[in-house]
Design a protein that fits this description.
heterodimer, A: 456 residues, Alkaline Phosphatase, subunit A, 7-stranded mixed β-sheet, 14% strand, globular, B: mainly beta, 8-stranded antiparallel β-barrel, 11% helix
Chain lengths: 456, 139
């Protein structure tokens, strides 16, 4: 219920000295309802999937055996998505030819160029210098068109270290493997690994006077960002109806909870105990799942307050030898991914794939389904893509890559379906059609697309 | 370890008989993406005359020059540089152009792929190769 004559601006914020907090969508923000953009999350699972090998596809380790709506997720790495099956669109049997080598010097360099090709579907120019060149990524196309009215057009998050410089191998600059978002063909965007940095960016980007020194002082005093905006929040609450007051209180509780968890991680990692990730900044949890959840919580806060509508999220590095004990595999990621086509090793890699999906999507989807967006859920008005530019990691090929879409793009995508593309269909066709559903109707091509893809 | 195995690529021993009739040098000419023990190696083959070729194997930033001849539907390559003799210190196996050199022998299969078998420090390992497709790079 609106208690004042003037609707609250969608850009209204809570302000305090050294802190600014954007607001969630409230009933009082009447005009904002009509132009809410589709939210987009692009997630990269690096280095392919077990289901892209011959044995893996025979066992349906990634995509289900049956197309259409009666698919069975139980043998697949997607089985944790069963409660969400009506929201998912699985697209199987597509290729990413833009990540293939074009000459002899590029053969073997797949680790170092795949990630660049994922969201751009474009050929990464082989160079170890500053003259990098690829294409504009789909998240950035969306951000450039529909993210200009949000404080941050987009954010780029990652889980593993991406701070290498220079050449990484086979004559490729490290930015090709470190960045999946490209604002322009020569402009890869850095990715943020530290939840603390994400938090501070989200709540430090508005208004003057929010300096790094002020943020450091805030942390040093172990204060909450909410302490700085308490008066502002109280004043705003007085203008709101009961529903909006509860919504605001719930939102601020969420902000505080995420902040508290970041502080707890920093305290734990600063205690001097040996860490699983030696050398990682103190804000980064050692546990993969905890790190992912924290990053998802930050994304949810950003979505609820429309700090941004676009995220890209990179779950690892192709050459990582991280161990994921909760997956049921005790092997190092990269070594396990090179399974030599041996069935028992392919199955072991499938366990890691399943763990990555299980640690990421269900948690995100639960929150999106429980968050209202107008008279629908946030998931209804969102699109999440989850996939990899690599198919069979053992061969470093880019065929039959794992890929799925979650969400309904405002009702355009029905969900609950498995679509198998014709052989040799480039994934860029799917991404082009996806961009159309996101409102980029005038886009005639994307990356190396050869046409569009039908959702039927 | 991998670089050692890669160096042993040139010590191939396996011989698979060609299954394609009328195989010529032209069928081998081109850039091949060789998959060996989960890794990719480039093999560039260039024609010299009706039966002879030169080739370059590109492994982890190192180029290995080779030469070879087609006979009985099979292409056999041997090294042409003395630095191949550095191989024994890695794998304890003679270099491809040394006194005990063993050639790389490969055959063209019906589906257009290459097939062979290499001797590595883990024993004989089969390998396959696909010809690199030419595709237009974006301008």
């Amino acid at each position: 219920m609106l208690l004042t004559r003037q609707p609250l601006s969608r850009r209204a914020v809570l302000k305090g000295i050294g802190a600014t907090i954007a607001l969630p969508l409230l009933d009082a923000m009447v005009s904002a309802r009509q132009r809410a953009g589709i939210k987009l999350v692009c997630i990269e699972q690096v280095h392919g999937a077990a289901g892209s090998s011959i044995f893996g596809s025979q066992q349906n380790l990634w995509s289900p055996a049956v197309t259409g709506r009666d698919f069975d997720l139980s043998p697949t790495s997607l089985r944790s998505l069963e409660p969400f099956r009506r929201h998912i669109t699985i697209v199987s049997n597509t290729d990413v030819p833009s990540a293939d080598p074009t000459d002899a010097r590029e053969i073997g360099g797949d680790h170092y160029r795949s990630s660049a090709a994922y969201l751009t579907q474009s050929y990464p120019k082989r160079t170890a210098g500053a003259d990098v060149e690829c294409g504009v990524s789909m998240d950035q196309l969306h951000a450039q068109r529909f993210g200009q009215d949000t404080p941050l057009p987009s954010m780029q998050l990652c889980i593993e270290s991406v701070d290498q410089s220079g050449g990484c191998g086979y004559g490729y600059s490290c930015v090709y493997t470190d960045a999946i978002s490209w604002a322009a063909p020569n402009k890869p965007l850095p990715m943020i690994r530290d939840p603390r940095v994400v938090f501070d960016q989200m709540f430090g980007v508005f208004g003057a006077g929010v300096t790094p020194e002020e943020r450091r002082a805030r942390r040093k005093e172990d204060l909450s960002i909410l302490d700085f905006v308490r008066d502002s929040a109280r004043r705003l609450s007085g203008r709101l109806g009961a529903g909006d007051r509860a919504r605001l209180a719930d939102y601020l509780d969420n902000v505080r909870e995420v902040e508290r968890r970041i502080q707890a991680v920093e305290a734990r990692n600063g205690a001097g105990e040996p860490r699983e990730l030696p050398g990682a900044p103190p804000g980064i949890p050692d546990d993969f799942a905890e790190h992912v959840k924290l990053m998802i919580d930050l994304q949810m806060i950003a979505f609820r307050s429309e700090i941004t509508r676009v995220f890209s999220f990179k779950l690892g590095r192709d050459t990582s030898n991280r161990v994921y004990p909760d997956s049921g595999s005790t092997g190092a990621f990269h070594i396990v991914s090179h399974h030599s086509e041996r069935p028992e090793r392919v199955l072991e890699f499938a366990r890691i794939n399943e763990y990555h999906v299980r640690s990421t999507l269900p948690y995100l989807l639960k929150q999106m389904l429980s968050t209202a967006d107008g008279d629908k859920t946030m998931l209804h008005n969102a699109v999440i893509i989850y996939g990899s530019p690599m198919g069979n990691p053992n061969q470093h090929n880019h065929k039959r890559v794992p890929f799925l879409i979650v969400g309904h793009a405002g009702g355009v995508l029905r969900g609950g379906v498995h679509l198998r593309a014709k052989n040799a269909t480039p994934l860029s066709n799917v991404m082009l059609s996806l961009l159309h559903t996101l409102g980029h109707d005038d886009l005639e091509s994307f990356g190396d697309s050869e046409g569009t893809f039908s959702w039927e | 370890m991998f670089s050692r195995m890669l160096l042993l690529v040139v010590l191939a021993t396996g011989i698979a008989s060609a299954q394609t009739k009328g195989v010529t040098v032209d069928d081998f000419v081109g850039t091949w993406n060789i998959e060996l023990m989960s890794h990719q190696i480039a093999l560039v083959i260039e024609k010299q005359d009706a039966t002879k070729v030169t080739a370059t194997m590109m492994m982890m930033g190192r180029d290995v020059p080779l030469k070879g001849e087609i006979a009985d539907k099979t292409l056999t390559l041997v090294g042409v540089k003395s630095d191949f003799d550095a191989v024994p210190q890695h794998g304890g196996v003679a270099a491809s152009n040394g006194p005990n050199a063993k050639p790389i022998v490969m055959s063209l299969l019906d589906d257009g792929t290459l097939s062979g078998e290499m001797m590595t420090n883990k024993g004989p390992v089969k390998w396959t190769g696909e010809k690199l497709k030419t595709r237009k790079r974006p301008q």
